[in-house]
Amino acid sequence: MGRARGNALNRALDIAVAGTSLVLASPLLACAALAIRLEDGGSVLYRQTRVGKNGADFELFKLRTMVVGAEQLGAGYAVDQGDPRITRVGRILRQLSLDELPQFWNVVRGDMSVIGPRPTLRYQVEQYDQRQRHRLDVRPGITGWAQIHGRTRLSWADRIELDLWYVAHRSPAVDAKILLRTPRALFGGTYKGETGGWKPS
């Protein structure tokens, strides 16, 4: 009963935070959408299948920051600073982390939480060992323990360990610490964002 009540409260807080964030960010989203369309006429949103809680697939939303069809060009899913596939508008959006704003809609839909491990790709999850699969015990998040401890500067192994620590120790106090430290972490940009520094074995 206590766990169910806690989950219901967390869900209510997620919806409140995500809904408020979408309303407050709507002018920024409108300006970003216009800039993306004016630059190359392509789609505003980028959609990609990610893995969520308990290994379920869901469609993640981002503002498009790369040329159309970027996954079939160059380094594929890997993205580094200076990648020629990143558009001029995309560089600004990534640097300010504005490309992540549509994920608040994923939170409203129930695919994600405000706080949790970042959602990853199916081919990455397929290489998790049994212990690492506990990373999928909670909803993925927009921000999380790994994001405030180095974000994409961390190796993939370090990020997984931080995420596993969060899954085992999550609490209102830990979540509050993450939220307080997230604004500072945001301005590190989102390079390597598609794979999180992943290097397949």
Q: What oligomeric state do the depicted chains represent?
A: single chain
Low-confidence parts: 190-201
Rg estimate, integer Å: 16 Å
| N-to-C order of helices and strands | HEEHHEHEHH
**Strand count:** 4
Q: Main beta sheet, described?
A: 2 strands, antiparallel
Helical segment count: 6
Approximate shape: globular
Which features characterize this protein?
201 residues, mainly alpha, two-stranded antiparallel ribbon, two-stranded parallel sheet, 6 helices, 4 strands, globular, disordered C terminus
List the helices and strands and how they pair.
Layout: H1 2-40, E1 45-51, E2 57-63, H2 88-95, H3 103-109, E3 113-115, H4 122-125, E4 141-143, H5 156-169, H6 172-186
Parallel strand pairs: 3-4
Antiparallel strand pairs: 1-2
Helix pairs in contact: 1-2, 1-3
Give a description of the structure.
The structure is a single chain. This protein has six helices and four strands; from the N terminus they run αββααβαβαα. Helix 1 runs antiparallel to helix 2 and helix 1 runs antiparallel to helix 3. The protein has 201 residues and is mainly α. A two-stranded antiparallel ribbon has the order 1-2. The protein has a two-stranded parallel ribbon with strand order 3-4.
